[in-house]
Structure formats: structure tokens, C-alpha cells
Design the sequence.
């Protein structure tokens, strides 16, 4: 078992012996997963602290929905939603991630205490993100998305989804190096459900090892996504997607995922520990 280091704000973490859980905190009124339950600051803070208590290594805070069909949020409103949350949580044990593609929002979040930028556009949405990260030394998660949230699920097509996502990762790795980022700060996310069909999602998840670039961590988020309902036959309720999510957490850790991005932290922490016990047993 090799070493998978990730450099975050100057500190190096090895994700090979124990995978990480990233807890999702959507500070939006239109989240697909919780319908806006954590849009107000007190509820958002309570949920974040619950996830930290249950074992989340990272809290990923987003103020702009990226669900299929979602419309953009302006800069001022996005910052108004997330910055007070980050400031309040900056002293907590978990690392904080800002889920944004806007350099100005990312800069304000880093000022407030975030250490990671999770960019669903993979650095294509706002090129100013690159020099910002190079200057600050923050970590970045480069995600693959075909199209934009309003358009991404309109008949997405690939000749070879695994090869095309892997090529994108290599291109963005080179782009990051060109802008002067430390390669150790990079992580990559195949963007499950972001411009992909059920078959595309499963192909990417089955072939995670082919997506790895220069031993960089792989971040994967399948939690509560609609393709789980198609697999399990429970298309009606989002709450019926917990068990498939937990199953995937163990399976994906065994298949090479380093960070699992989830909504239900406690159950997925347990699933991750089961997988890690198997992975590290001689």
C-alpha cells in the first residue's frame, strides 16, 4: 500500500492508512439533499458540529447549489451565506473546505479560516483561482463536470468516459503547475452525477485507479445521488439512498478513494473504518 500525501495549508497528511470523510454542509435554500434545512446560520452550525463529533475530517461548506438545473448565485449573496459559518467553525477540529468556483469567494473563505477550495469547475470557471491558491498555499479539489449545473444532465455523451476524465485531470494538473501551485496540494474528484449517466458513473467508480494522477488523492461523492435510487429501485425518496451510499463508501475505499464526500457522517465513518481494517491487514 503506497503513500498518498495531501498538503493542506503547509501540513502534510497521509491518507493511505485511514481514509477521510468530508461532511457536506449546504448553506442554500434549494439543496437537493436537505431542501434547505441548514440555510439559516444556527442550524448550519449545529449540523457542522454534529458531523465533526461523528468523525468528519473535513466540513465542505457551500453557498451555491450545484444540483442539476441550479441557477448561479451572485458573489455578495454567496459570501453572505458561507463566511459567517466558516468564521464560527474555524477553531473546530475539522478542516474547513469552501465549495465554490469563484476566486473572490474562495479568498474570503480562506481569510475566514478555510484551508481547502473545492471547485466543481476544476479551475475552468474562474482562472483567478489558480494564482490565489498558489499565493495562499491552500489545497484544491479539482472536479470534473461536463457542462454547467443548468445543462449538465442534458444527454451527456462521452466516447470513453474514464479516458476523458483522466485526460482532464492530467491537463488540470499541468495547468496548476504552470500557475505555480505545489503539486502536493492537489486532489481530484471525478464528479459523479455532474454531466454523467448511470453508466458513466459506474464506469468511473469501477475504474478509479485509472484516474489517479501522480499519487494525488481521489475525492469521491456519491452520497444521496439519484443514480443510487436507480440502482436500488428506490427512486422516490432521497432518504432511501443511505444504505447504497454506505455500501459505496466501503467499496470505493477498497477501490482507491481517499476522501468520501457524504451527508450522513456517522454511518459512513463506520463503513470507512471497516474498509480500512481490511486494507491494512497483511
Sequence:
Amino acid at each position: 500500500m503506497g503513500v498518498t500525501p495531501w498538503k493542506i495549508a503547509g501540513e502534510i497528511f497521509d491518507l493511505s492508512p485511514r481514509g477521510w470523510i468530508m461532511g457536506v454542509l449546504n448553506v442554500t435554500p434549494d439543496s437537493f439533499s436537505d431542501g434547505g434545512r441548514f440555510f439559516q446560520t444556527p442550524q448550519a452550525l449545529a449540523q457542522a458540529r454534529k458531523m465533526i463529533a461523528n468523525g468528519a475530517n473535513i466540513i465542505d461548506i457551500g453557498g451555491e447549489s450545484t444540483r442539476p438545473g441550479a441557477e448561479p448565485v451572485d458573489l455578495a449573496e454567496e459570501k453572505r451565506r458561507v463566511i459567517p459559518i466558516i468564521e464560527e467553525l474555524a477553531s473546530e477540529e475539522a478542516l474547513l473546505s469552501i465549495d465554490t468556483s469563484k476566486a473572490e469567494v474562495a479568498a474570503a473563505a480562506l481569510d475566514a479560516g478555510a484551508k481547502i477550495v473545492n471547485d466543481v469547475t476544476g479551475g475552468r470557471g474562474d482562472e483567478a483561482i489558480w494564482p490565489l491558491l498558489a499565493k495562499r498555499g491552500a489545497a484544491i479539489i479539482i472536479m470534473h463536470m461536463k457542462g454547467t449545473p443548468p445543462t449538465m444532465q442534458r444527454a451527456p455523451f462521452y466516447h470513453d468516459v474514464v479516458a476523458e476524465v483522466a485526460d482532464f485531470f492530467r491537463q488540470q494538473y499541468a495547468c496548476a503547475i504552470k500557475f505555480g501551485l505545489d503539486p502536493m496540494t492537489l486532489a481530484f474528484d471525478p464528479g459523479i452525477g455532474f454531466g454523467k449517466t448511470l453508466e458513466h458513473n459506474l464506469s468511473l467508480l469501477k475504474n478509479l485507479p485509472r484516474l489517479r494522477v501522480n499519487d494525488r488523492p481521489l475525492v469521491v461523492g456519491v452520497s444521496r445521488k439519484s443514480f443510487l435510487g436507480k440502482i436500488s429501485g428506490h427512486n422516490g425518496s432521497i432518504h432511501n439512498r443511505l444504505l447504497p451510499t454506505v455500501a459505496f463508501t466501503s467499496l470505493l475505499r477498497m477501490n482507491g478513494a481517499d476522501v468520501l464526500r457524504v451527508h450522513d457522517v456517522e454511518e459512513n465513518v463506520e463503513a470507512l473504518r471497516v474498509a480500512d481494517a481490511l486494507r491494512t491487514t497483511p
Summary: The two ends are 10 Å apart (CA to CA).
